[in-house]
Design brief:
The structure holds 2 protein chains of 2 kinds. Chain A is mainly alpha-helical. Chain A contains 7 helices and no strands. In chain B, 69% of the residues lie in helices and 0% in strands. Classes of the chains: A mainly alpha, B mainly alpha.
């Protein structure tokens, strides 16, 4: 065990506790930059929603609320399995850890799959993709186009974060199956968990802002 | 390094521990990464400086002496982009911060050494994109990339330059992240927050701005790219967009970015003033907290760039008041530095000359900033040479003087060699004179109404413009002298020893150059920072 300790400890650190605290703080700081990154987008969204509320509502009504709600539920479940995976890693339960990581990956893939195969594909067929084949009609045409610029960009950046998260979890799953984590070293799983929850939280804001504005009939 | 140098210093150090280009390109040693940055930013400084030389030569005659107007536009854009994003922002954090933060907190390296190396590669990648943009025809938007000029009218190289800045931003974020974690988690036993050197406080405040500001300008740049790519109206008013939104997003980062440039210099100056006065710094906690205050308030003043852009008058009033507020912590620093000099044993070695030059020039730059923060005077002075002079007093007179002062101060630590002090003092003087001759006339030009970014000007402005150009050539010589003697000193300079200045601080307790692991035994700190002449003080 002590050999494993030495291998896990970076030479710049005094002990594992210091290393653990440093990587946790590093992850939180990284997430702060992510919040500011999305914050710029939310600010832009807010400005144009204020300027062109009817257009944004019209754009929002063209989205499929049911699919959005389904995906929200999928993501919330994935956060639960992720939290359980972190707990399994802390307790050193290898099989449980691998199972929960795989479940999280599957839920993440479901989200991205629904997004791409149903929602974006549908939008493409309806000529709602700005810059490619957006057809603007009526007095709100420009505003609806602007709504879809923000919709595609924000959900696109979010999906990109999902894909990166899935890739990280895939690596962790392989490492977990090799028995690389345990009560001594569960830091990477915990960090990936923080990232995964963050990406979920972003979606919790995106869903109402994009899908639920204006009265739905 | 010659064999005599190895014998003269204490044997194995970070410079001679490994040889070969691979040992540099794959190093995770914060000291070597600092030197990689030093070489890279010097390269970009020379390019940006060359653009400035061409601009000042051109402005010798009212109708322009050298360049086509379109080429002139590309020159000032290139000067601004390179100097801001590829020299000033990385300068002190990436070179001196990388070298000193682990040593000053008594650690063997930064918290994330590989991330540190990654940040250098990201910086180089961003630099390559920007260099490509210059070579492929240049960009004429200025460093501010205002829309709709950048989205609708400018040429396609705008995208390459913007991508370069976007990429380089991540290098800045990662450096800041590394510093914050290192300062929080890796301090030596006994090194409490209020025993930290003030340079560390300044780097901490700078890192906060880098972490929270840079992502916002990144997203603004991406939106500009999206608008160009898809021809949608994010910022283009003709398509329903709001060009002012771009200015908000841009300045939300780019005004705090001014403090990314000046705060580290303030940290350096705090170190220099106390060391060369041989006296504990006056008002330690005031200087420490003023750094944090500057970082916080810097996020609340961006609107003062937009007083005449159609922003609401009430927003203007608030931004004006907040901009006045940011002058308070800056002034606190200046007063504390001068109070430190009082009754100190002041010696005028080269680093100290830069520090004193900094205080004077920064005060000028800061006070003229208040002219621009006032709503009424800004209407007259906005977009004139007054603004140019103001921010060059901050960024060159302040940030660059601090950078050079710090480089002269820690050069013996970085290389183990001393440079010729006479030449160094001479170059400090040349830079001070050249700088004032370059930029003081620009205050007058701006007050008289000469707008910035114009390739031609009315004949009555010629005398002041020629003065400014003459000053620029003196300034250029002033910058080249250190380049020569620094390179000379690496081989021929006298051996410095661990602490040539008699300075306090953990970085001076190791050999020069330091060993790869910085300290043979990790230090335990038992005294306050800058404990100069503590015993004498007790007797009095």
């Amino acid at each position: 065990m002590s050999e494993g300790r030495a291998a896990a400890l970076g030479e710049q650190f005094e002990d594992l506790e210091q290393q653990h605290e440093a990587s946790s703080l590093g992850m939180w700081v990284f997430l702060a930059t992510e919040i500011m990154f999305f914050g710029g987008l939310f600010a832009g969204y807010t400005v144009y929603r204020g300027l062109y509320l009817p257009g944004f509502e019209a754009g929002s009504h063209l989205l499929n609320v049911k699919l959005g709600a389904f995906n929200t539920a999928v993501l919330l479940c994935s956060s639960l399995t992720m939290a359980l995976a972190v707990r399994a890693a802390m307790l050193g339960r290898r099989r449980e850890l691998v199972t929960f990581l795989i479940l999280t990956i599957l839920l993440g893939l479901t989200f991205v799959g629904v997004k791409m195969a149903f929602e974006w594909h549908h939008d493409y067929e309806e000529h709602l993709v700005p810059g490619i084949d957006f057809v603007s009609e009526g007095p709100n045409g420009r505003a609806i186009e602007l709504f879809f610029v923000f919709y595609f960009f924000m959900t696109g950046v979010h999906a990109l974060h999902m894909v990166i998260g899935i890739a990280i979890l895939a690596v962790l799953t392989w490492q977990a199956s090799q028995g690389r984590f345990g009560p001594e070293r569960y830091n990477p799983v915990e960090m990936a968990g923080l990232y995964w929850h963050f990406v979920d939280v972003i979606w919790i804001f995106l869903f109402p802002l994009l899908y639920l504005i204006g009265a739905h009939h | 390094m010659s064999t005599t140098a190895v014998e003269a210093t204490t044997g194995v150090n970070y410079l001679n521990a490994k040889y070969g280009i691979r040992s540099w390109l794959f190093t995770t040693d914060h000291k070597r990464i600092a030197l990689l940055y030093l070489v890279s930013i010097t390269f970009f400084f020379l390019i940006g400086g060359a653009a400035a030389v061409l601009m000042r030569l051109h402005l010798i005659e009212p109708q322009g002496a050298l360049l086509e107007p379109a080429t002139y536009n590309k020159m000032f854009s290139m000067h601004g982009i390179i100097m801001v994003f590829f020299f000033l922002i990385p300068s002190i954090p990436a070179v001196m911060g990388n070298f000193l933060v682990p040593m000053m907190v008594g650690a063997r390296d930064l918290a994330f050494p590989r991330v540190n190396l990654l940040s250098w590669y990201i910086y180089i990648l961003g630099g390559l994109f920007t260099l490509y943009a210059i070579l492929a025809g240049g960009v004429d938007t200025g460093w501010t990339f205002y829309t709709p000029l950048s989205t609708t009218y400018a040429n396609g190289q705008v995208m390459a330059a913007a991508l370069g800045i976007f990429i380089t931003g991540f290098s800045s974020i990662l450096t800041g992240l590394n510093f914050v974690v290192t300062i929080h988690k890796m301090r030596a036993p006994g090194l409490t927050w209020f025993r930290l050197p003030l340079f560390i406080w300044a780097m901490y405040a700078t890192s906060i701005i880098q972490i929270l500001g840079t992502p916002v300008v990144a997203i603004a740049i991406v939106l500009v790219g999206l608008e160009r790519l898809l021809h949608v109206g994010i910022f283009d008013p003709a398509l329903g967009g709001d060009p002012i939104l771009f200015q908000h997003l841009f300045w939300f980062y780019s005004h705090p970015a001014v403090y990314i440039m000046i705060l580290p210099s303030m940290g350096v100056v705090s170190e220099l003033i106390t060391c060369f006065s041989k006296k504990r710094i006056f008002g330690y906690s005031f200087i420490a907290f003023s750094s944090v205050a500057i970082a916080v308030i810097s996020f609340l003043v961006w609107g003062h760039h937009m007083f005449v852009s159609g922003q609401s008058v009430y927003a203007g009033l608030v931004f004006s008041a907040l901009s006045f507020a940011v002058a308070i912590p800056s002034a606190i620093k200046v007063f504390n530095w001068t109070a430190t000099l009082y009754k100190g044993s002041v010696s005028y070695q080269a680093p100290m000359l830069y520090a004193l030059g900094f205080i004077g020039l920064f005060t000028m730059g800061g006070l003229t900033g208040l002219f621009l923060a006032s709503l009424a005077t800004d209407i007259h002075l906005h977009d004139t040479y007054f603004v140019i002079a103001h921010f060059h007093y901050i960024m060159v007179g302040g940030a660059l003087m601090g950078y050079l002062g710090g480089l002269h101060f820690w050069w013996p630590k970085m290389t183990g060699r001393l440079y010729p002090d006479g030449w160094a003092r001479f170059s400090a003087l040349v830079i001070f004179i050249g700088f004032n001759l370059t930029f003081f006339p620009q205050f007058m030009l701006g007050y008289l109404g000469m707008p910035r970014r114009y390739a031609v000007y009315p004949p009555e402005f010629q005398v002041l413009n020629v003065m400014s150009s003459a000053g620029a050539s003196i300034l250029g010589v002033g910058y080249l002298i250190p380049l020569v003697y620094f390179i000379w000193s690496m081989r021929y300079g006298p051996v410095a020893g661990p602490n040539p200045w008699g300075a306090k601080g953990l970085e001076w307790e190791t050999p020069s150059p330091p060993p790869t692991e910085n300290f043979e035994e990790l230090p335990i700190v038992e005294e306050e920072a800058y404990a100069y002449g503590v015993k004498e003080a007790r007797v009095v």
